Amino acid sequence: MFRVKAVAELLDVSRSTVYRAIEAGELDVLKVGAGRGAIRIPGTAVNVYLNTCAERGYADFVEGDQSPEAADDETAEVA
Q1: Residue 29: CB partners within 8 Å, gap ≥ 6?
Q2: Is 19 in a helix, a strand, or coil?
Q3: What gap in Å lies between CA 1 and CA 29, rounded to an integer?
Q4: Is the pTM of this model over 0.90?
């Protein structure tokens, strides 16, 4: 089980990116506790999410015509 912060660090993305994946239904979570509670992300959900990302990457960069260099956030220019 992972906290959002741990998943963000594991994937080298922001916590906002993880929350967007959760809100989009791309990353499953468990709600623990009553009321507001806390969310935890099972390791299996992280694996499913990574497989989905890998399939999208293959479709975009191998089968498609997108450039991986242009999509890499480390090489993207900041306006």
Answers
A1: 22, 39, 40, 41, 45
A2: helix
A3: 9
A4: no
Instruction: Please give the structure tokens belonging to residue 54.
Output: 């890998």
**Nearest CA to 29 among 42, 12, 16?**
42
Residues of the chain with confidence (pLDDT) below 70: 73-79
- Torsion 14-69-28-3 (CA) sign: negative
Rounded Cα–Cα distance for residues 53 and 27 (Å): 11
End-to-end Cα separation, the chain, in angstroms: 37
Closest CA to 46 of 30, 65, 64: 30
**Tokens found for residue 21:** 């994946």
Instruction: Please give the Cα distance from 67 to 41 (Å, whole number).
Output: 31
